[in-house]
Amino acid sequence: MFEQVKLTYDVNGLEPQIDQLTIETHYGKHHATYTKTFNELAEKAGLAGKSAEEILGSLDSVADETLRKGLRNQGGGYYNHNLYFSTLAPATTAAKVPTGKLAEAIDRDLGGLEAAIDALSKAAAGQFGSGWSFLSVDKDGKLYVTASPNQDNPISEGTGRTPILALDVWEHAYYLKYRNLRPDYIKAFWEILDWKVVSDLYDKALG
Q1: Contact 197/87 with Cβ under 8 angstroms?
Q2: Number of domains present in the structure of the chain
Q3: Is residue 10 in a domain?
């Protein structure tokens, strides 16, 4: 059974960058609904017991178009939000820079941390409508910056890459506090991103 990632901070722990009401709504309602519905659809499709990555990476094997679309949207919503919420931390405790192999890869593939943040921010700001920007890694350790619409991600898009950072730019992620000022939310996101978690996810992806 798929479960929401447990928050490592209080619902008001990301203020002022993200307010308590947004966390209560985003995590407590939106993410909870994605999780519940994904479980129901996986059961209906006979995929219970498989990982979210396995399901999202083999959507073409689901013959029923409606069920396939539901798994893509609800499963993506579940997976993307688990990644998003797990990488956040209060600004006072969040690691501000990546370390180890990830730091080396960012320098090598993306031209340094400042350039990586700029690329991810531009991808997020430029995503038309709802969606995400992702930092993902392939089997050789190379990093990629991409944007995806709706609840898609590099797994459901068939890239073979593993997302290690997800920046949510659905309006429900920021509109209660930032209204239509998406760039302000994106700027604040970097203050509460915990690069230690992202660095650990990079190491895990490499095995």
Answers
A1: yes
A2: 1
A3: no
1 occurs within a structural domain: no
Residue 194 lies in a domain: yes
Q: What does the pLDDT look like over 38-95, one tens digit per residue?
A: 999 999 999 999 999 999 999 999 999 999 999 999 999 999 999 999 999 999 999 9
**What are the tokens at 13?**
């722990």
> Is 7 inside a domain boundary?
no
84, 76 in Cβ contact below 8 A?
Answer: no
Q: Which of 170, 175, 186 is nearest to 129 (CA)?
A: 170
Sheet holding 143-149, edge to edge: 143-149, 131-137, 162-168
In angstroms, the CA 26 to CA 102 distance is 29
Residue type at position 190: W
| Sequence-ordered list of residues with C-beta below 8 angstroms from that of 115, at least 6 positions apart, any chain | none
DSSP-assigned letter for residue 124: H
Whole-prediction pTM: 0.98
- Orientation angle between helical segments 182-192 and 113-126, nearest 10 degrees: 140
Q: Give Cα separations from 97 to 111, 158, 172 (angstroms).
A: 14, 29, 27
| Contact assessment for residue 5 and residue 176, using Cβ atoms and an 8 Å cutoff | no
The CATH number given to whatever domain includes residue 63 is 3.55.40.20
State which residues form the domain around 195.
19-207
Sign of the torsion angle spanned by Cα atoms 83, 84, 90, 91: positive
